[in-house]
Design a protein that fits this description.
359 residues, 5-stranded mixed sheet, Nucleotidyltransferase, domain 5, alpha/beta, 12 strands, 43% helix, globular, single chain
């Protein structure tokens, strides 16, 4: 059985071909250089770039595998949620191929696919349910309780901004480029090394130095998140260090630029404020649900500092912590689309007539 998988939910055009359980090839076209100009993903621009890249990516995977479209048995495509113009590009191409060649097409939920990325390159038995999973990417910053693969209950969500969005906006405040979290994270790591910050021994309420930015708990028993206030605190600190003055009550005018040391320190303090809350709320949700396994998913799950903090808290509470085995699977990719549907097919009796869905 040969499967063609599409993922175009945001700014990565990713297509993969699988044969049964084996990944034959996956190709992903990134739009980072384009969106670096604006410092954020502009939906219309992203959709245009998908349209420009999708046939090249499709031709590439077909050429590398030697597979003809007529040989494809099923098409799997992300249909929701995320940026509608981007999603429409992938679903239009996928549904056109499906209609012309009469190939069944299966819609996939983007967030659920991110969660299932934890099964890539793992045996099914390695993840023991029930589990609690934290998704940290794009617009979604949620905690899910899962009694089994298909029983998802959202127990916490962001009330305003997601952590990735906060990282990107902080990076934009300091003119660091896009995407924000890898750059901010790198600067934070450099600051930690240069200032002898031992990650395993960080004490957030150290009496010698009060944290620069607040931890937004809402309530510690609540699994929801809020990062808009933290972004405002960073903006005030940036303006303070740039010596901003208000000119004509319209726009703050800086009198100087941030130094490299300023950028590193702000990045470090901001990242710690985000990560402490993310890690704590994930473990608290696990304890409240009486589960012994937690998962991490989404692009920010590639953040080493986040994984270190969750590992530390999980070990302290005798909880197993798992995350995608490769940072490639943290990003938007067609492999996660495939693994989700693979388990759908495996766990349920697969009938073609049920899964022929128009998107």
């Amino acid at each position: 059985m040969k499967i063609l998988a599409f993922e175009t939910s945001c700014d990565d055009t990713s297509i993969a071909i699988f044969e049964d359980e084996k990944l034959l090839v996956m190709e992903t076209a990134s739009q980072i250089k384009i969106h670096n100009i604006t410092g954020w993903v502009v939906p219309e621009v992203a959709a245009r770039e998908h349209a420009n890249a999708i046939f090249w990516v499709l031709d590439t995977v077909l050429e590398k595998t030697g597979v003809q479209l007529e040989q494809i048995d099923y098409i799997w495509v992300t249909t929701n949620p995320w940026l509608l113009p981007s999603l429409l590009t992938g679903t239009t191409v996928a549904s056109t191929i499906s209609t012309l060649l009469k190939i069944p097409i299966i819609p996939i939920n983007h967030i659920q696919a991110h969660i299932f990325a934890n099964f890539l390159e793992r045996e099914e038995k390695e993840i023991e349910f029930p589990v609690v999973c934290l998704t940290v990417s794009g617009w979604h910053n949620d905690i899910y309780s899962m009694k089994d693969m298909w029983d998802l209950e959202k127990v916490g969500s962001t009330t305003d901004d997601a952590s990735w969005e906060a990282f990107d906006k902080v990076a934009k405040m300091m003119w660091l480029g896009y995407p924000g979290w890898p750059i901010v994270s790198q600067m934070a790591d450099e600051y930690a090394v240069e200032n002898n910050k031992n990650i395993d021994e960080i004490v957030f309420n150290d009496v010698q130095k009060k944290p620069l930015f607040p931890r937004v708990w809402l309530t510690k028993k609540q699994a929801d998140f809020s990062f808009s206030g933290l972004k405002s605190a960073v903006k005030r600190e940036v303006d303070k260090r740039r010596g901003c003055i208000v000119w004509n009550w319209v726009k703050p005018v800086p009198t100087k630029d941030l130094t490299l040391e300023d950028k590193k320190e702000i990045s470090y303090e901001f990242q710690e404020a985000v990560i402490e809350v993310l890690a704590y709320k994930l473990i608290q949700a696990a304890l409240q649900k009486w589960v012994k396994t937690v998962l991490l998913a989404g692009w920010v799950s590639a953040n080493n500092r986040l994984k270190q903090e969750i590992t530390k808290l999980a070990k302290k509470n005798n909880i197993e912590f798992l995350h995608p085995v490769s940072n490639l699977y943290c990003m938007d990719n067609a492999a996660m689309v495939w693994i989700l549907t693979y388990y759908r097919v495996k766990c349920w009796e697969f009938e073609k007539k049920i899964w022929v869905v128009k998107v």
